């Protein structure tokens, strides 16, 4: 009776594949498996694309350590929204009004759209219809959304110039404009 090695090799190959699958599962763990930062914690690394397709690296805008004169620091305000979110549409004019008021005060404002890429044209139409004149960033896979521990839209994350999460506001608010202004002022003063 002749023994074949194929069975043994097949088992080894299956174990290796299983091991690789487990290793890949670990390295591709969803962002939600990381603990969400709390106000006062360093903001997680965030890289998003804008509507023209350029990368915006948030840590190039707000970062710890000495300020680089070639890359001045800014507080960053991220307003997470979706095209079908009614409270987002209600808060957007107040967000844009505040963004215009702080435009020359070292604060960068972005509307972060969480819609899937299949809705990119609708997102562009939304930005045009609502006259969004600050940056529009795309988070179609909700990576930034998850890294910041955001549970839905609308949501607001405010980062200080040194890259610390200053304020996180989730859900629709009655006093949205007041809370937004307080959050921006808090971030600018840090």
What does this structure look like?
There is one protein chain. The longest helix is centred in the N-terminal third of the chain and has 22 residues, at 6-27. Strand 4, helix 3 and strand 5 form a beta-alpha-beta unit. This protein has one domain: Glutaredoxin. It is α/β, with parallel strands linked by helices and 190 residues long. Mean pLDDT is 84; it is low at 1-32. The protein has a seven-stranded mixed beta sheet, covered by helices on one side. The protein has five helices and seven strands. Helix 2 packs across helix 5.
Structure keywords:
190 residues, 7-stranded mixed sheet, 35% helix, 7 strands, 5 helices, disordered N terminus, Glutaredoxin, single chain
Helical content, roughly?
25-40%
* Chain-averaged pLDDT: 84
Assign the CATH class: Alpha Beta
Number of helices, where a helix is a run of at least 4 consecutive DSSP H or I residues: 5
Measured between the Cα atoms of the first and last residue, the distance is 79 Å
Mass-distribution shape: globular
CATH architecture heading: 3-Layer(aba) Sandwich
Strand order of the largest sheet: 2-1-5-4-3-6-7
**Rg (CA only):** 21 Å
CATH fold annotation: Glutaredoxin
**CATH homologous superfamily (4th level) name:** Glutaredoxin
The largest sheet, given as strand count, sense and whether it forms a barrel, is: 7 strands, mixed
Order of helices and strands: HEEEHEHEHEEH
In total, the number of domains comes to 1
Look at the helices and sheets and give the structural class.
alpha/beta
Percent in strands: 15-25%
The low-confidence parts are 1-32
């Amino acid at each position: 009776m002749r023994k074949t090695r194929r069975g043994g090799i097949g088992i080894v190959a299956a174990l290796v594949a299983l091991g690789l699958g487990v290793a890949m599962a670990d390295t591709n763990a969803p962002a939600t498996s990381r603990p969400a930062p709390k106000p006062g914690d360093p903001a997680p690394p965030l890289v998003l694309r804008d509507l023209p397709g350029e990368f915006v690296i948030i840590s190039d805008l707000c970062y710890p350590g000495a300020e680089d004169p070639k890359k001045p620091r800014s507080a960053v305000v991220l307003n997470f929204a979706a095209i079908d979110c009614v409270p987002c549409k209600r808060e957007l004019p107040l967000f844009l009004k505040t963004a215009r008021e702080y435009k020359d005060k070292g604060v960068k404002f972005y509307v972060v759209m969480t819609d899937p890429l299949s809705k990119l044209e609708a997102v562009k139409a939304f930005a045009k219809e609502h006259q969004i004149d600050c940056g529009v960033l795309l988070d179609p896979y909700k990576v930034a959304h998850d890294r910041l521990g955001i549970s839905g839209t609308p949501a607001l994350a405010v980062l200080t110039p040194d890259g610390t999460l200053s304020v996180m506001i989730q859900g629709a608010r009655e006093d949205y404009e007041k809370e937004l202004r307080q959050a921006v002022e808090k971030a600018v003063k840090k």
